[in-house]
Amino acid sequence: EKAVNLKKDLAEMQEWMTQAEEEYLEKDFEYKSPEELENAVEEMKRAKEDVLQKEVRVKILKDNIKMLATKVPSSGQDLATELNVVLENYQLLCNRIRGKCHTLEEVWSCWIELLQYLDLETAWLNNLEERVQMTGNLPDKLDAVNDALESLESVLRHPADNRTQIRELGQTLIDGGILDDIISEKLEAFNARYEELSHLAVSRQISLEQQLQTMRETDHMLQVLQESLGDLDRQLTSYLTDRIDAFQIPQEAQ
Known about the structure:
Layout: H1 2-24, H2 34-71, H3 73-134, H4 142-156, H5 161-175, H6 180-241
Helix pairs in contact: 1-2, 1-3, 2-3, 3-4, 3-5, 3-6, 4-6, 5-6
């Protein structure tokens, strides 16, 4: 009777493993929304816990069959053969579910990381847009133009590492058919805004550089003219002091 019960337990264990495999490993999942992906991750976590909890039952079966084999070698030998099949299938099931759970957790982590990088780069784009707008109505002063140019250039020196991460993370998920529509839409919107603002910022940078160069040249010309007028003023003053007649001094002084 004990052998019959153990045989029944082995059959039930095998049946449970078959059902678990069908439910957790043979489904065709399509992750088209973050909610679907998150639910799949949680489901696989529960599946992993469920399968691992059966380890106690498997160990009890193993111990009981070993004990029976010492008392009734003939019955125990047949059950031991069935037990080995169940143990092998159980270990395979555990490994496959662990693997799928790990994969889904990695995918979810990849999605969260992509969102974080997008948030960082969106904040940078907002800052860039603000700096570009600030260059719109500048006072016609060299210091103001110079400060605006340096401020814009400091934002434009932003490293490209985050954008590289966004591109690689997004492509990895899209290639796997995971959230591909949502990610494609997000990346398209981000890239379009990035290209637009970058071109605008570089164009404004060039404009400010030209404006600054013109103002510096004008300032230099005014300085040279002012120095020349100062020299002339001092020379004319010396002529007046020495009471020199106008017709006795060079033509330019007259």
